[in-house]
Design a protein that fits this description.
alpha+beta, single chain
Length: 205
């Protein structure tokens, strides 16, 4: 089941700024990535969450999509934690972390309220996810139009078809991660797991 290849981080047709109903259709583990900000190089484990906007359609009639990269962290200041807590309408407790706790896969197929802003990147106006919240009462959440997908860089949750459906840029990012290289070498010691296992609580936002 191959996925379409939308513009990662936003669709070609910008989503109008404001609050929209969104439906999550995929969660992708990107592994540990390197970034440079204000001359300082940092590494962090990243994931990507993607949503559809059912009320906004392109010329083909398909819902517009947007994605956001998050550091895989449950630090109290982490954007991922803030967005997940606002999405579920409830703060996390200690029991939610670790084995048997909250599983990130649970967000797939779930609706939320997305706050969309616009920004110029690479000379193009692009949509950006500025906030995530709980679905407003009275709103019905449709089933995802796109095939749902989950990919994590450990053998038990690695789906070659999902991987092949990503854009070339996304596949190259994943291939460059130490988690992917370790998995390809049949090593399981360098992966960070899924759910909350291995989340880095030391990365401030």
């Amino acid at each position: 089941m191959h996925l379409p290849k939308p513009e990662e981080g936003g669709s070609f047709t910008p989503i109008p700024p404001g609050t929209h109903l969104g439906v999550c259709y995929r969660v992708i583990d990107l592994g540990t990535q390197m970034s440079n900000f204000q001359g300082e190089t940092k590494t962090a484990h990243k994931i990507m969450i993607s949503w559809e906007i059912p009320e906004e359609r392109n010329e083909k009639g398909d819902p517009l999509v947007c994605s956001k990269f998050y550091t895989w962290s449950m630090h109290e200041k982490a954007t991922l934690r803030h967005h997940l807590e606002a999405w579920r309408g409830k703060a996390f407790e200690d029991k939610d972390f670790g084995p048997g706790g909250f599983d990130i896969r649970n967000v797939i197929g779930k609706g939320c309220m997305l706050t969309i802003s616009e920004e110029m990147r690479d000379g193009r106006l692009r949509s950006s996810v500025a906030g995530v919240g709980k679905v407003m009462k009275g709103l019905s959440v449709p089933e995802p139009h796109n095939p749902t997908a989950y990919l994590w860089i450990i053998p038990d949750y690695w789906d070659p078809e999902v991987f092949s459906g990503l854009s070339d840029k996304m596949r190259d990012m994943i291939r460059a991660s130490p988690e992917y290289k370790s998995m390809m070498q049949n090593s399981t010691t360098a992966t960070n797991g899924h759910g909350h296992d291995g989340m880095n609580d030391d990365i401030p936002f």
